[in-house]
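Data card: per-record layout.
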Amino acid sequence: MTTETKTFEAPLYSAQGKQGGTRQLPEGTFDGIVNVPVMHQAVKAFLANRRQGTAKTKTRGEVTGGNQKPWKQKGTGRARQGSTRAPNWPGGGTVFGPQPRSYTQIVPKQVRVLARKSALNARARENAVVVVEALNFSAPKTQAMTDLLTKLGVAGKKVLVLTDGVKPNVYLSARNLGQAHVMPYSDANTYHILWSDVVVIESSALTQTQAEG
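The structure for this 213-residue chain is written out next.
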């Protein structure tokens, strides 16, 4: 775990992709502390909670048929058998097969918050945080998002764009890009942040976070 505290600055770009200096990241969130075990716990729980847990095999009591004894108990020279649906028969039931279950893992809110904060600090330590001014797309257009990412110098990387609230046009503009993902800043969790190579944050989202903190 990295416990050294420090302040960070990120390059600031306009909505058109023109660089205009730097922006100091709020110290309430970006303090430089990275807690790896907590991030691991949060990511493990997130992936586990996505599992449906619907895998199911039939036991010998659930397989259709097999009610009649295949042959008499004695006198045939063969091993005694009571049902053709026993596990040792083709088409028989399965022993110790998967059954429907829940993979849910509950992580306390304070742990989730700490893990998300650690993930943001991890990206900040790698100089992988970029701040942009308000993103207001008049209509969904993939080319507009592609041009913006190119001007930001993050084309070809896995990019997580965090907006200030829900912005459908921005989201739809990146939906067809396999390496880019858009979501509100408040919805991003540890997994999303660690998935990305670069985190692009809308400037007003940082202001709101700093005011709340």
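Known properties of this structure: The CA atoms of residues 59 and 175 lie 43 Å apart. The chain has six helices and six strands.

See the next section for split statistics.
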